[in-house]
Amino acid sequence: MDAAARELCRAKINLFLDVVGRRADGFHEIVTVFHEIGLADDLEARALPGERGKVTIDVVAAGADVAAVPRDATNLAVRAASALLAESGAKDGVALRLEKRIPAGGGLGGGSADAAGALRAVNRLLALDASDADLERVALTLGSDVPFLVRGGTAIGRGRGEVLERVIATSRIGFVLLFPGFPVSTAAVYRALPATLPPRRDPRAVLDALAAGDADALARACSNALLAPALVVEPRLAAALGAARAAYGDRVHMSGSGSTLFVPAADPRVVPVPGFEFAAQTAV
Asked: In this predicted structure, what is the pLDDT of residue 110?
């Protein structure tokens, strides 16, 4: 057994997101293009010998406000570690230390990234020998985008986002991330979708731009069906989007249900934009 296992818990952005139907279980059917980016939390796991099922967590600010990050059993990383310990029957517990850099509640999958990182770290720390498929199965019990973040990279997500088709992308495209300092409720955004969904769109242009490493084509191709309802749910988002577009033009897009905005760029440079709490340039 290793003394400690460390993982980078990388964020994701949704380069494309279309809502294509409603499900009987209350979720929506989506088609999305997940793309892992370099912005990441750091997670360390250490064993608690003989303390079966026990999971503790210490959360440290390392560039993001951690006030909204749970430090109890509701934290997704704790839930992930607990679920894997229970499934494996491991006799030891785990102490987690999480350094947060991904803004919470911004549509970047920060909590989901931490959960995926915890699954990988605990699996390695305690030599549980779970496969990626095993970890993705546990991940789905934690959230719709956690299975993607177990392996990261780039993938088309269907269903709730958990039916994954891995695709080849390029590392030549960077992104500017702009977080306005407030979250947007995912549930509220989905509730605000119109009764009649808009016509389906095709992610092919996004995939072609990624394969070619063409940042300009990607900026034209990105789209998000949740932007319009997000603007209804959170009026402050309109001002943030306007400020970002004043600086970056129509290259600005929203990740997930918001509120983080992103700008594809071959040479990403942060332009000062008033009203944003967090700005960063990143690539995979």
From this structure: 95
**Cα–Cα distance measured from residue 229 to residue 203, given in angstroms and rounded to the nearest whole number:** 20
Q: How far apart are CA 234 and CA 218, in angstroms?
A: 26
Q: Which of 12, 18, 100, 114 is catalytic?
A: 12
Cα(196)–Cα(198) distance, integer angstroms: 7
Q: Are residues 155 and 184 in the same domain?
A: no
CB 142 within 8 A of CB 80: yes
Out of 142, 166, 190, pick the residue that ends a domain: 166
The pair of structure tokens assigned to 81 is 């570690």
In the chain, how long is the greatest CA-to-CA distance? 57
Summarised one tens digit per residue, pLDDT across range 19-31 is 999 888 888 999 9
Q: Examine the residue annotation and report whether 12 is marked as an active-site residue of this protein.
A: yes
Q: Please say if 100 is a catalytic residue.
A: no
Pairing of strands 28-48, 55-61: unpaired
